[in-house]
Amino acid sequence: MQNRFRPDRQLSVRMVITMFLLGLLYVAFIAALVALLRSWILVVVVAGGLLAAQYWYSDRIALFAMHAQEVSAQEQPHLHGVVDRLCATADMPKPRVAISRMDMPNAFATGRNADHAVLCVTTGLLRRLETDELEGVLAHELSHVAHRDVAVITIASFLGVLAGLLVRFAFYSELFGGRRNDQNTALLLALIMAVSAVVYAISFLLIRALSRYRELAADRAAAMLTARPSALASALTKVSGDIARIPTEDLRTAQPFNAFFFTPALGDGATLFNLFSTHPSLERRLEQLAKISVQLGEPT
């Protein structure tokens, strides 16, 4: 797909490497499960079916989980107007537009490609941001669609939890029936748990590393497209500060979608050199935008 968002070769390389490593990891994981469970048809069908469902219906799943609904241009003329202008500037298809009735200020994009993408914002975001700030946030989210990293992170995130899903399925099914005694069953469960833990830990780190970089890439692309990095920086500062004042209980509901949000709903583990974070630090993002502002000669 051709568009006017600034290409990011480093992002493309990182996505290819991450998916290649995750692919190798999960081929080994499925092979280990087949060897342990001796039922390759069941494992492959369940894993393939869940992955296909996540890929094809990721937009519907996300909107349902965030209590969001699509809105027309008649219902939200201002929001649609901003999206129309950005898509025209970027020369890309316009995604569907949705609103989540949440006070938490945030936004995300999801969907398997540009032709099946949906851009969702919360009412809290619309209420707090000025038009130029909103343009920066939406340009950030549109760049995820244009760079195709929305589909990549969707697949990668799903693979990260596949281990746990398969373990639960095996545990609650009748796979551990009369052909094995209790000792063999316990050993088999322990082996599955051990393999799953290793797979999850490796995939977790790979996905988080890609997620942090893609957020910086989206900030860069949005700043270059709008030529107003200071507006995006202002939105980042405002949203991050306001999220800190949202009740923790409300933020926990949205936390599973941290990897897709403009800013994380809750701090996600900024320890061990931020290895566990889905987003780079606010300071890192603002520093990058300040450098772009100098490059563009934007007045302060």
TrEMBL record:
Active-site residues, record numbering mapped to chain: 141
Segments forming a coiled coil: none
EC number(s) reported in the record: 3.4.24.-
Keywords: Cell membrane, Hydrolase, Membrane, Metal-binding, Metalloprotease, Protease, Transmembrane, Transmembrane helix, Zinc
Cofactor stoichiometry and binding remark: Binds 1 zinc ion per subunit.
GO molecular function: metallopeptidase activity
Membrane-topology annotation of the record: Multi-pass membrane protein
Domain Peptidase M48: 74-291
Top-level taxonomic group: Bacteria
Pfam families named in the record: Peptidase_M48 (PF01435)
InterPro entries linked to this entry: HtpX_protease, Pept_M48_protease_HtpX, Peptidase_M48
Enzyme class: hydrolase
Annotated binding of Zn(2+), by residue: 140, 144, 215
Protein name, UniProt field: Protease HtpX homolog
UniProt organism field: Streptomyces humicola
Lineage: Bacteria, Bacillati, Actinomycetota, Actinomycetes, Kitasatosporales
